[in-house]
Design goal:
Blueprint: E1 7-15, H1 20-31, E2 38-44, H2 52-61, E3 67-71, H3 78-88, E4 91-97, E5 102-103, H4 108-119, E6 123-134, E7 137-140, H5 150-153, H6 157-165, E8 176-179, H7 180-190, H8 200-207, E9 213-223, H9 234-254, H10 259-267, H11 274-295, H12 307-314, E10 317-320
Parallel strand pairs: 1-2, 1-4, 2-3, 6-9, 7-10
Antiparallel strand pairs: 4-8, 5-9, 6-7, 6-8
Helix pairs in contact: 3-7, 7-8, 9-10
Length: about 325
Amino acid sequence: MMMNYPFTVSVCVTTYKPDDKKLRLTLESIMRQKNCPFEIIVADDGTEDLAQEEIEDYFAAWNFHAYKIVRAPKNYGTVHNTLAAYLVARGKYIKDISPGDYLYADTALADMTAFMEAGGHEAAFGRACYYCEEQGVYRILDYMNPRDLSPYEAGDFAAAAHAQLLCQDYPCGAAFMARRELLTGYMRLLLDRVTFTEDRAYTMMLADGIRLAFWNHNFVWYEYGGGISTNRENVWQERIIRDNQAFFALLAQRHPELSSVCRWHIFDGYEAEDIWYAYAKETKEYYRRIDEARAQGMFSYLRGAAPEELAKLVREKVMFSCV
């Protein structure tokens, strides 16, 4: 059955107590998009003083009207908030993004859509250009997730699944786009099991045999250290660990053949079995090889990253980090 979609992409901007400047810049990076019909859904997870009128005024200043603002009555967590956005979305594809993350260039949505349409891909991710900001200076970082891109570059599905399910080397969630119906179904699966790490929907897809295509081009600017997954505060690290354990418990129920590796992730190796020592050894070796290759200058994550693309949004000095 053929479906007609009012928009090609629903860009879902999920927020909680957002920084006003970062939110405006994220919205600008979306409203700049060309050659792709899209809507914007701002889904807020219970911010009591959300500046909704100012957001609406900002849309009006851009003469942009294809938007919705969805507000939760209280803070439920990222998975609930993300699903709330999906349930009112009308695009063929979903693109998630958060304040502080920006679409890489003005044709990012059109280019990713063309890639997905040409290959018939249901879920795909592109390159995420990591950056950080200090005192008004923006630095582009030679870093990316997944740490090892080679399985995706080679189209090696088995190696990609192994890297994620054993080594937890996940692609950056901000760099994904997926078919709306597919992603909504997986978000429902996570609901009330996982609270904050909505990106695990893609990991479950992979475990279910759905290929995650890799668009080997820059798709988003990703604020390193600003989001949940890269936040170094202890409270967030503990929440991520709990979410991770909940996800692997769910994965073990769905895929009993993966129960051993799931138990290893859940119990973090404290209940020692010989096979868990092998898992730990392989994972350690996996990251050692990547770190060694980087130290030897064998590869860089930066591919064609153009500082001017970020500078036109942030209107500040942008440079490559020397670290």
